[in-house]
What does this fold into?
Amino acid sequence: MKFLVIGGDAAGMSAASRAKRNNPNLEVTVLEKTMDVSYSACGMPYNIADTSMDMDVLVVRKAQVFRQKQGIDLLTGHKALHLDPQKKEVQGQDIQGTPFSFLYDTLLIATGASPIIPDLPGMDLPGVLPLKSLEDGRKIKSYLAENTVKKALIVGMGYIGLEMCEALVERGVEVSMIRRSNDFIPWLDKDICDYVRQETVNKGVGLYFNQGLKKIEKKSMGLCIETDSMSFDADLVILALGVVPNSDMAEKAGLELGRNKEISVSRALESSHDHIYAAGDCADAFHVVTGQKTWIPLALRANRAGWAVADSVCGNRVELPGIAGTAVFKLFDLQVARTGLTVQEAVRSGFDAEQEVIKTRSRAHGQPGSTDIWVQIVGDKKTNRLLGLFMVGKEGVAHRINAPAVALSARMTVLDYIQSDLAYAPPFGPVWDPTLTAAIQLSKKLT
Amino acid sequence: MKFLVIGGDAAGMSAASRAKRNNPNLEVTVLEKTMDVSYSACGMPYNIADTSMDMDVLVVRKAQVFRQKQGIDLLTGHKALHLDPQKKEVQGQDIQGTPFSFLYDTLLIATGASPIIPDLPGMDLPGVLPLKSLEDGRKIKSYLAENTVKKALIVGMGYIGLEMCEALVERGVEVSMIRRSNDFIPWLDKDICDYVRQETVNKGVGLYFNQGLKKIEKKSMGLCIETDSMSFDADLVILALGVVPNSDMAEKAGLELGRNKEISVSRALESSHDHIYAAGDCADAFHVVTGQKTWIPLALRANRAGWAVADSVCGNRVELPGIAGTAVFKLFDLQVARTGLTVQEAVRSGFDAEQEVIKTRSRAHGQPGSTDIWVQIVGDKKTNRLLGLFMVGKEGVAHRINAPAVALSARMTVLDYIQSDLAYAPPFGPVWDPTLTAAIQLSKKLT
It folds into this structure.
């Protein structure tokens, strides 16, 4: 049986490797449009921050290992362009321009997502760079090495934008960030958001809101960036406006897509067409809280979905319960984390949502080194279900978010969560974990 | 109605405060044998480590606040000695030797636990000190301030012993520890345990096993400690042999006790006698994994149980689901955490238990600063239930343990846990959280 995989990153290589391990007789072919496979994309900002590190330390497993040790027919520089579900055929072109075509018994589309590049003048100028692929990372790092970059402008304030902000500040670059809307981290409640914004500004970062990008021009020295109402000078522009799923080929082949053009899949990652799976950033998922479809492209889901497809392809059909949108990022001294739904998201999904915001301490009473921890928690008035939790602090946030994340998977009520037996030691937290204290406060509003 | 509380620490003061908040007309009296109430006992080793801090920063709320602001009749220096459940009366003696007696409508016994002091020669010598009450902490700190303490011997290797070991090493004291048995941390698997032991020894600590204490003698300079086969010189001896529940009075009154003489209570903290509750370190609990009675005296449970009693006393009967024995401690650079059952404990409770031990990394591939994380995970072959998880590492352990702790509360299977949507960012962990990787490996053994 021929298992064809389009895309050689998290979902694609996870699926290919596991399928081959499950069934060594399976013919597994992977088509990857770039020359890179299986790398830690999320590690790029930290790598860029560190001049001593080569970008290729982010490669988890080299292409020849997949080929020689695992027996996977891994074809890099092979871009799939056309899918014919009737003929079960994928056509494309390799990096030399030579056309290719492959027949499959089962296909996995794991084409990922692409950075949004606005259709505006100057997006192709040298020094105007997005960050998505490892090649993007290399370009930014080379540009920083080969040019005098004193000032950078980051367009967008999502995870990538904020992580690149920290990376550039660490390299001594003066960073400004612009955003079209007037909110900073839209899922954080105002007080917490203000705190994170102030901590960012305190690092010397300029944050400019209500600034839609208009154009970028080359000047004698560096770049000039114009928005609706301002203009910026910079030596480097990072385009961090989010991503779109790579689903053009799937769309043309008639596969069902969702609201953001992500490929619509079942809990077993099956697309609307027989014998075609989709996984990773190009595909949607069910949300464990709402039970509804959602598109939150993150790495763990991509890996997990790849494995599930591999098992299904090998005869052991696996359904995934779904995602909670759990995420964390580092922003200078802060850890910022979320799981589940905000009040606004919850209301949109039909919940009678209520929230509580508390500020507490990261360590026990009388313990030195304690810092603030903010917790924003959301529950449902009708059912008492825990719906979401958001946290910011200088320590103890990144892993603390996983306890409420598990509670969301288990569909716990807020009262159930309050009874969880969490760990306590003075250097690591108060007797009542901050998430428990928040849940206790919220529970008073839910009854 | 008269609500009488015996014991003014975590469980007792939590109950008294909340009962008074719930119902300001309630007559609430607290009898505390020492002069201290409401302090962070677990913070004492860290306070002792720091010469600049007063021991009293650990007091969370002062006695006069409870008296004046909260209207609680709080009597310190009042030791309860006799309980008559028929007459609903408690008799005792205050610190001046004056007898007292109180009638109650509802009684809470929150007498806590006492350090085990072996019946051996020399236990009352100056410089031979246990650590349980705030007064114990003050004595150790004064002793360190007033004497030249170059060498200390710690008898016992439990949480308190190990935390005191770190505290004394931080103060420049040469520390040796002895233990009667030949294991270090009995609930850790051999490889992990060896790693923790080696890290402790690397800090210059002498660890001596199979050393039952025989006697302590005063010498011209310092103390001489003799075990079955060795003798030690030390300026200070810390007795950290564990604790026993303070249940003598309850026992004499005929209340039902458990295997360790802890007071046996229902899920609503009711003792075997009407109108008498027990909570905190003197009472038992149900284990969320086994459903059976257990005695694991820890601070969060004491606080939670105090609150539950207060609600029940005020007419809103509350049952607590129970505990998972979740705990964490810091040992030099290490964080050591546990939740749930070991294989041995699980087998004793009737499970068909299997475990897996993995060593992974604390951060993502290619991310600098990564260190080892060890995970030991236990599941049931019959039902696939997650039964326990144990973790050691230099970062990311203390709060990471809370995710499996919630999973135990939710009675998740190992397969359910694997599907939890946990957070990922390169500075904080691998894509697959170490607890997920361990669960994946374990799941292969469970099927």
Notes: Chain B has three domains: 2-114+244-313, 128-239, 327-446. Chain B touches chain A through 69 residues (CB under 8 Å). The longest helix of chain B spans residues 299-313. The mean pLDDT of chain B is 97.
